[in-house]
Every structure is written in structure tokens, then in C-alpha cells.
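User: My collaborator sent over this chain with a note saying "see what the structure looks like." That's all I know about it. Can you take a look?
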Amino acid sequence: MTELRRVPPLALALGLAGLFPFLWSALTELWEPASALTLRTIGPRFIGPYVGLAYGTVILSFMSGVLWGFTARAERSAGFGYALSVIPALWAFIMVGGGPVSAAINLMAGFAALLGLDYAFQRWGLAPGWWLPFRVMLTVVVLACLAVTAFG
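Assistant: Without extra context I'll predict from the sequence alone. Here is the result:
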């Protein structure tokens, strides 16, 4: 918890705001009034699995870019870091499809595996000290929301 206090306020605010599409996805799957309101006001693309899976794919790819950025700061082992950093984006590109249940399960696997990469990059001194606790906190919420699609 101490490390979470070191998260820069803007990073914390944006990270928490980035959970909104995942939370909205789960809410509109679990609560019909939210789904109906969304359908009437902004359309079906922002309901249930559609928003959660599309946004999850984007965020998993974005995280590849974050790891790439960490690697760019490295003066050693950069080639290995670059190779590892593209895995989340490739995973999302290859594995997300085939229906909402399998897509959600594959995204969950991708986000869980990403924590392993986050851990490695932090151990190598490429990510800030607050990074892993912050990522764990965000990932727990993401996995819970995707579980609604996968197992709901």
C-alpha cells in the first residue's frame, strides 16, 4: 500500500478513469436498465461485451507500448525487452475473437500474463517502484469485469 501512495496523482487519476469502460461493460451486462439506457442514448457498441472486449484489446495493445517505452530507457538487454514488449499486442491481435466468452477468457489470460512482464520490467529497474502495485490494483478490476463476460 505504501508504494501506491507514490503513484503520481495524474497517473493514478488516468489509470482509475481507464477502468470506466471495463466497469461500464460489466454494469451493462449485469443491470438491464443501464444496458437499455446506453442502447437508447449512444448505441449498442457501448453495451456489455462489445465495449469491454474492444477496450480490453486496445488497452492490452497500449500496454505493449508502455513496456516498449520502458525498454527504450534501458541501456542493457534492450533487444530482449523490445521482444517481450510486443507480446501483449500480438496476443490481443491473435487471440481475441471467436465470440465473447473465448475473447474475454483470452483477454483475461493476456492481462494476467502482463503482470508477469510488469514484474520482470520492474525487477530489471525499467519500471518505477510504484508500477507493480499500481498495475496489480488495476488488473484485479479488469479481470473481475472481464469475468462477467467470460463466466457471467
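A starting point for your reply to your collaborator: The chain has a mean pLDDT of 94.
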